[in-house]
Amino acid sequence: MEYSLTRMNSGGPLEGVVNLNKPAGMSSARAVGAVKRLLPRGTKIGHAGTLDPFASGVLLLLVGKATRLCEKLMDEPKQYEATVKLGATTATDDPESPERPTPGARPVGREELEQALKTFVGHVLQRPPAFSALKVGGKRAYDLARRGAQVELTPRPVQVYAIELLDYQWPRARLRIDCGRGTYVRAIARDLGAALGAGGYLTELCRTRIGRFSLEASSGLQELVGAGLESHLVPSAQAFCPA
Fold first, then answer.
1. How many domains, in total, are found in the chain?
2. Which residue in the list 52, 93, 178, 191 is annotated as catalytic?
3. Is 52 labeled as catalytic in the residue annotation?
4. pLDDT tens digits, residue range 171-205?
């Protein structure tokens, strides 16, 4: 979908956080670019925490002096709703590459799945996906992986606060995941499938919360156009207050 945005006029410098509901199929960079066209020329804008193009949900856009909050907001707890397909894998651990059915994969019972999920909660070591933006020898891992290079990233500690099984009908499991900074939900899907001996990958992902900013309180791009960006700005001083 294309969005026609008109630059807004403002009597003074704009600053604050926009809680954007990023649609699936749009990169985070493109979402930032679309909103930038609404701003007075020269206004700084960035975002706190990339969402993959296939994912949707909360993307925090930082305007003006609020760009200084980037690191603090990225440290805030996050919540996701994710759909994992068992019985198959992909090279990217998500729907961005062809599915590879797992030979001999058998249906997994709900109790077995729930027991496996418990092992991914707490302070855990997680190996980031090969197709990630992390750097290896000064180059992005996904660039190396796309060239056919073997990319083995070092496992690193992450915090997963809770995983709730919302729905399960083999081969798809829908999860709610509360986690800290640096957690890859794609890696949870991959490792869950491996633990069950069935393989698994992420088919859908929606970020439903970052800190105080929830999906319910987010705004779509067309809402920003219709009501004006200024009415959707949360001042920097309120970014860490209860919603």
1. 2
2. 52
3. yes
4. 999 999 999 999 999 999 999 999 999 999 999 99
